[in-house]
Amino acid sequence: MKANSTALTGCPFCGTGCALNVECTENGYKVKGDKTNSSTQGDLCFKPVQMAKALDIHRLTSPLYRSDKTKPFQEISWDEAITILAQNISDLPRNALYFYLSGQLLTEESYLFTKLIKGYLRINNVDANSRLCMATAVVAHKMAFGSDGPVGNYADIDDADAIIISGSNPAWAHPVIFRRILARKKAHPDTKIIVIDPIYTETAQKSDLWIGLSSGSDTTLYNALLAELYRRSACDTVFIDRATEGFEQTLNPAIEIPFAESIASCGLSLNDAKALVELFASQKKILGLWCQGLNQAVDGVMRNLGFINLFLATGRVNAQKGLPLSLTGQPNAMGGREVGYLSNALPGYRDVRNSDDRETCEKHWNLPENTISPTPGITITDAIDAILADEIRFLWVACTNPLLTLPDMKKTERAFNNSELFLVVQDCVLSETASLANLVLPTFSWGEKEGSMTNSERFIKRVRVFKPLPISAKSDSEIVCEVAKRLGFNGFEYPNTKAIYDEYKVLTESRLCDQSTQEYESLSYQWGDKRLYADERFATPTHKAQFHPIISSAPQLNENEFILLTGRTKKQWHTMTRTGNVAELLKDEEAAYLLINESDAKEKGLKEGDIAVIYNELGSLELPIRFGTLAPKHLFAPFGYPQTPINTLVPVLNDPFSSQSALKSAQVTVKPKPINRR
Length: 678
Known about the structure:
Elements: E1 5-10, E2 19-25, E3 28-33, H1 46-51, E4 64-65, E5 74-75, H2 78-91, E6 97-101, H3 107-120, E7 126-128, H4 135-145, E8 162-166, H5 170-173, H6 175-187, E9 192-196, H7 202-205, E10 209-211, H8 218-231, H9 237-243, E11 244-245, H10 247-254, H11 259-265, H12 270-281, E12 286-290, H13 292-295, H14 300-313, E13 322-326, H15 333-339, E14 345-346, E15 350-351, H16 355-364, H17 380-388, E16 394-398, H18 402-405, H19 409-416, E17 422-427, E18 439-442, E19 451-454, E20 459-463, H20 476-486, H21 497-506, E21 524-526, E22 545-546, E23 561-567, H22 583-586, E24 594-597, H23 598-603, E25 611-616, E26 619-628, E27 634-638, E28 666-672
Parallel strand pairs: 6-7, 6-16, 8-9, 8-12, 9-10, 11-22, 12-13, 16-17, 17-18, 23-27, 24-26
Antiparallel strand pairs: 1-2, 2-3, 4-5, 4-18, 14-15, 19-20, 20-21, 23-28, 24-27, 25-26, 25-28
């Protein structure tokens, strides 16, 4: 872009999906909110504003290669890099290949990966870091409504009588959404904000009621509320009979335990629980928001469905009485889900197990019948096991840093260091994962590539170039296409990104995520309209929404154990590969910490500022103590700090339905750091 020009684009951080207006001047870039965008209405947080200062820091400049991971990297040409990459793919059996993608890829990039892997390589051995954040919400939406896709939209905040936030801290993780919530509260003080979370977060501090439940008791709480609503004849039986199935089977296990007993087991007061019952029993419009506190759990799908059950039971899937709205973690996890980049999916919310879905994609990609495998691929945590067993011998990681984000970091590190594994990392910086690779491919970053992204409310916006392109890097799309052509595949000749989008959008026609009528150049569109299922015709085989019985499974702690919760900080993003280079974003967040109740700390002989050792059978870490307010026997530590990688202590425990890892319920012991008396 030339000086004194502007570009409309999107934020590369959370799933709120803020639209940006970037002014290019002789002195750099000035980032503002795009007020013409109907989704985020010109608002934005401080991360994209500050990020423009660090766009070129620590950028990779050339492909790096080493055949032996114990030797130093050597710079090589792109032709050599593509040749090496294609040769490694060709030399191995297809089932020895694995791909790991990212919710930070643009839709067109994820689509090309899906086409190459599932269509041309004929394997489903691909997953994405959405497995770590949104896979559970995907499965819950499909089980309850028949398809993935958040039901509501941000405008539902603006006339809600009550907003229930369960397992999320949007004041930190989705600040623009939270400011919209506070604006509703300011304009209409009677609006109730209720937060269900083991931590008294910044979001909880600004709420009307904090429900500080014990971690893992979410399902018990939801079952108790459902049963009590039924006892009070407060369920919407007309809606239930007309538009749903499975209510009786869901109610039966929920009603077995007395209400007071259930609430006590959650560590809650009866009065707080009754306030929730009275709210759901009213005719008020309730918006339910949730994120990783419900998703990143061994019973995450049950937590999601338990929350959704309350809205179905009270007829809240509409603009009048309210609805549930899942918040998305990454900027384009929704777009990735739409193009089918998880191990069982295909573009347009299709599934590899469905023969009609496979046939549609095969025809669209000009592939022979039965090309696409009907068997879902293994998920990323299973792939780590397969690498250690020498079954997966090639891993291509695109735009993510799994060494720090996957559970059991030491196990992941052993896998990536396996001499039998050829590790390819495609990124704009030398991340911790890239430092263990055989081949590193430098890619374009934010401001250097174009395409589209979909946010938490299903709103699609264009991402545009606003800075000069680095001479030696390539776009993610260009890399995929060059490798595909080097492998001898046709169908990867695209004159521009518009051509990729135009090919992809055809596969959305008549699907829930239909965007087939949209024009790429002017793309600014919310698929599914303001709210899904406005006609109460759901995407299930019977067109009725589905209740599901909820199984409660709270963790059992030993006497000296604590539950370790993890999450983002307010200013940093994921593993800090970009935001960690910005002084303004590092302020007060230079290092990780351990949040603990003062009473719990005193019991362990710890004072604020002391260094605590937290440990379990996987390892130990040392973190400075901060006092906070949490449910008893709970701790919080931020993830993503390379010096103290908290996932060192998180075991590989996955939800049985979604295979999403339980990143928020590790069990650890705490003690003061021993004093060195030398």
